[in-house]
Amino acid sequence: MRVLIVDDEHVEREGMRAILSRSFPSLSIIEARNGKMAIDVARERKPDLILMDIKMPGMSGLEAMEQIREDNPDTKFIMVTAYDTFEYMRQAIKLGATDYLLKPSKINDIIDIVGKVLKQIMLEQKSRISTKRQQHIFQKTMSVIETDVVTQLLFDHVHEVHLDMLVEILGIETKAEMFVINIHLPAGSEDNYSKIKEVVRQTGYSLVGALHSNQLPIIVFRTNGISYRSQATSLAREILSVRENPNEEGWFIGIGKVYPSLDDVRKSYQEALISCLDITTPVKYKFYPDIPGDNYESNDQVKLLQKELPDLIRFGQWEQVQVKIINVIRLFENNGINPLQAQQRILEVLWTVSKVLNELGIDSDTPLYSYRTLDYRQLRSETVSLLGQMKQLHTEYYQRLEADNVEQIKRYIIEHSHEDISLEALGKRMGLSPIYISKIFKEKIGVNYIDFLTECRIERAKKLMADPNRSIKEIAIEVGYHEPNYFSKVFKKMVRISPSDYQKTVLGKKD
């Protein structure tokens, strides 16, 4: 630690230095002979503790202390004075002095007071370090939660921590207007991720997703007092300014339409993806509403097809699904629609197929074309390939589903409720999609997965409470809760009575 001794008397400074050096050999001791010099030294050396003489020619110790604290609010002061008056002490305490010494002071008094203040400084420094570390961990955790929220919203992933809880942690207003932008980045742009995130942070409230396959989705919440296009354009330009070379190829930003809540966020994301299909335009961002539409006949056929597909997929009539989609592609071709525009519309149809699969409990990634189509032959070929992949998922899923049933899943959870069972782990164990398991609980059992697991644990806990030798803490850990306080909260919510009161009742009845 650095200690500054301020006194206009050389003998006083030397005496204090000698006492402190012998008693606290690890200190770095510096000196100043007046208030003005003390201010300059403190600005340069930033001492942890200053022993300040109050009465000095020119600037008083109180005046110097007041100026030093402006730049160094954490510095501690011990005021040293030969004047034992209330007014001096009142002013010193008002300015933030920690303690004071009277001239002349006994060596033991000096050692005791300085030692006490040094210990206080040490504790505060440790506390600040701990707080900074906690803040850093908190910020990292919130960043992970943010990415997880975007993943669950846009990609239909099911995680152990439910989306609603994560949204609540982040304090997101679910009914706020929002839109999605999707950033297409050149290969090897991982280093730009943090730069983009920082830019986005400065332009308003947004949720930044994970960078995957050179695509970075961002959910942007609307800013009051500025139009949607102005907000999106400004954000797009700020993001593009991250490029070291303004002419670097591969950068493009697609912008989806505004929707009234997070429930519709996936629509805006799909629109943003469609807007990124053609990245060769001079302006490196595009709004979905600005994409040229096709003629009315083709548009009507696409809408009709999107209505017919769900029933065909549910009944596994994939040949008809393919025939109908290929017929619409031929209609686009016959009407002279640009192949790239046709690809954009057919992609919307394929997303309808993927959405139906997810609703059935089949974990299907959002289908994407691997390239910008140049002609209709390419469009037909890759469309058939993407349909084939989704058909395979559908077939494999129902083959596995035949060997599984609800009772098998329930039995396993009941027997293993005391373990940390996630939906993903249960899915692997049963060979089923986590989405399907979550869905089957709601539809077949009438409760969601977490509620059923909680019921199993509470029922197990109630049985264990009949044993008077078991404490509530032991029971909590045994049924799968690592935090007894959280267990008590969940138990009281489920049973309408605290665990301790319930155990007393059970044991009382038993007697």
From TrEMBL:
Coiled coil: none annotated. GO terms for molecular function: DNA-binding transcription factor activity; sequence-specific DNA binding. It holds the Pfam family GGDEF_2. The keyword Transmembrane helix does not apply. The keyword DNA-binding applies. It comes from the Bacteria. PROSITE patterns: HTH_ARAC_FAMILY_1 (PS00041), HTH_ARAC_FAMILY_2 (PS01124), RESPONSE_REGULATORY (PS50110). Keywords: DNA-binding, Phosphoprotein, Transcription, Transcription regulation. GO terms for biological process: phosphorelay signal transduction system. InterPro entries: CdaR_GGDEF, CheY-like_superfamily, Homeodomain-like_sf, HTH_AraC, HTH_AraC-typ_CS, Sig_transdc_resp-reg_receiver, Tscrpt_reg_AraC-type_HTH. Residues 407-505 form the HTH araC/xylS-type domain. Residues 2-118 form the Response regulatory domain. This is DNA-binding response regulator. The lineage of its organism: Bacteria, Bacillati, Bacillota, Bacilli, Bacillales.
